[in-house]
């Protein structure tokens, strides 16, 4: 037993001896690994910081370009508030009940008259149309057959008449042959009417098939998408909320005008064709010339107001339905000055020189957009007149950074009016 225990002790590995032999190399290796990890972490942190700073939106100060004043002496005799409305607006629907298999519109899409907006399932109607076409083809074949029989009967009748004259056949036989020809003529007329009826059925089938395609009734913009693929649409409300009565809403943006409610105590100040000026709540520095279209001959007894229709004399993509607007009715239209400045006014600090060009940076969808402009040489106070390249209502960056790139992400700090 003692000898066996001694043998086992001799077979054990001396750990202290092993650690003592390799202790120096192990410690050095761990030190190198730690140092490498620190370097990699520093590099990654620097790269992450650079990426964050490079893609972080630049804080900028903005202003709105405004049209220069022409020094009009026209004064406002009345002010009223209202909303932008569309005189031409339609909720487009199918003329038959069916299941949508394709919807080709989204909100904001511009469509043309006759453009396909959606399609309904049409297998049954297409099969019915094919059946009607087959019936029409058979009817026309019957017309051709009867026409051939009539032609042959007429020839037989002529020959019988010739034989009667020569006394070879009886008059009765010739009359029977002529009667047969007359019968074929009547059958031909019947066959033609049946062919016309079959063609009409083909037309009905084609119309029903066309009803499965929903088209735009006029040029406009889609403002609402009301149905999705798989839903049932119907021109009539079926109730229960499972049947859609429209595919989408289309608005003719060229038909936009303003409806304002004028207190009936002051409606006498408003006249048809009266000049006016409209200011949208969304763009308070943009003054839009307008005029009165008509005074609606009806009053609202609850609000004691009369509705007045006002036409916008400038069309712009920024004007959309249901926008709030303030209308000033003017006693006379501003006189047109021959030397009236053209263009817009922006803060002088918004213009910078880039490659020997006057440049401004616009803000569009959260990004800076470089725009080459033509500016007047003389400043107008703290403002500069830009004659080309900008429109009233554009948002420009004031004092853009020297390293601001076209397309860089920006975030407006505050928007100021010139």
Structure description:
This protein is an alpha+beta fold and 418 residues long. It has helices at residues 2-11, 15-55, 123-165, 171-210, and strands spanning 58-64, 76-86, 89-92, 98-103, 110-111, 116-120, 213-215, 220-225, 232-233, 243-244, 248-251, 256-263, 275-280, 287-300, 305-312, 324-330, 344-347, 352-354, 357-364, 367-372, 374-375, 383-388, 395-398, 410-416. Mean pLDDT is 82; it is low at 17-25.
Question: What is this structure's SSE topology?
Answer:
Elements: H1 2-11, H2 15-55, E1 58-64, E2 76-86, E3 89-92, E4 98-103, E5 110-111, E6 116-120, H3 123-165, H4 171-210, E7 213-215, E8 220-225, E9 232-233, E10 243-244, E11 248-251, E12 256-263, E13 275-280, E14 287-300, E15 305-312, E16 324-330, E17 344-347, E18 352-354, E19 357-364, E20 367-372, E21 374-375, E22 383-388, E23 395-398, E24 410-416
Parallel strand pairs: 1-24, 9-10
Antiparallel strand pairs: 1-23, 2-12, 2-16, 3-11, 4-6, 4-9, 5-8, 6-7, 8-11, 12-15, 13-14, 13-16, 14-15, 17-22, 18-19, 19-20, 21-22
Helix pairs in contact: 3-4
What distinguishing features does this structure have?
five-stranded mixed beta sheet; alpha+beta; 418 residues; 24 strands; six-stranded antiparallel β-barrel
Annotation, overall tally of beta strands: 24
Average the pLDDT over all residues and give the rounded result: 82
Radius of gyration: 43 Å
SSE run: HHEEEEEEHHEEEEEEEEEEEEEEEEEE
Global structural class = alpha+beta
Main sheet: strand order: 2-12-15-14-13-16
Low-pLDDT residue spans: 17-25
């Amino acid at each position: 037993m003692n000898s066996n225990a001694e043998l086992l002790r001799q077979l054990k590995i001396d750990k202290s001896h092993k650690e003592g032999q390799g202790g120096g190399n192990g410690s050095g290796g761990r030190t190198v690994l730690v140092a490498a990890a620190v370097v990699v972490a520093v590099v990654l942190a620097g790269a992450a910081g650079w990426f964050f700073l490079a893609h972080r939106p630049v804080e900028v100060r903005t202003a709105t370009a405004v049209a220069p004043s022409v020094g009009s002496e026209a004064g406002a005799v009345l002010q009223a508030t209202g909303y932008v409305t569309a005189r031409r607006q339609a909720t487009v629907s199918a003329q038959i009940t069916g299941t949508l298999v394709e919807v080709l519109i989204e909100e904001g899409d511009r469509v043309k008259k006759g453009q396909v907006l959606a399609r309904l399932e049409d297998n049954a109607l297409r099969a019915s149309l094919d059946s009607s076409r087959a019936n029409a083809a058979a009817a026309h074949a019957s017309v051709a057959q009867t026409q051939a029989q009539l032609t042959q009967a007429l020839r037989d009748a002529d020959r019988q008449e010739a034989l009667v004259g020569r006394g070879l056949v009886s008059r009765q036989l010739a009359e029977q042959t002529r009667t047969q020809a007359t019968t074929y003529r009547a059958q031909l007329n019947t066959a033609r009417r049946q062919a016309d009826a079959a063609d009409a059925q083909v037309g009905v089938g084609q119309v029903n098939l066309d009803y499965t395609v929903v088209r735009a009734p006029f040029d406009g913009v889609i403002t609402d998408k009301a149905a999705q693929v798989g839903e049932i649409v119907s021109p009539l409300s079926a109730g229960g909320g499972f049947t859609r009565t429209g595919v989408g809403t289309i608005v003719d943006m060229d038909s936009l005008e303003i409806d304002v409610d004028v207190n009936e105590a002051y409606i006498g100040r408003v006249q048809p064709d009266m000049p006016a000026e409209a200011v949208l709540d969304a763009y308070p520095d943009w003054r839009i010339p307008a005029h009165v279209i008509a005074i609606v001959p009806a009053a609202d007894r609850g609000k004691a107001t009369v509705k007045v229709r006002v036409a916008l004399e400038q069309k712009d993509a920024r004007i959309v339905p249901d926008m709030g607007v303030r209308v000033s009715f003017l006693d006379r239209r501003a006189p047109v000055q021959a030397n009236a400045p053209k263009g817009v006014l922006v803060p002088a600090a918004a213009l910078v020189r880039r490659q020997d060009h006057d440049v401004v940076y616009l803000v569009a969808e959260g990004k800076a957009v470089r725009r080459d402009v033509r500016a007047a040489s003389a400043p107008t106070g703290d403002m500069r007149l830009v004659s080309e390249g900008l429109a009233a209502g554009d948002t420009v960056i004031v004092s853009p950074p020297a390293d601001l790139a076209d397309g860089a992400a920006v975030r407006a700090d505050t928007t100021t009016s010139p």
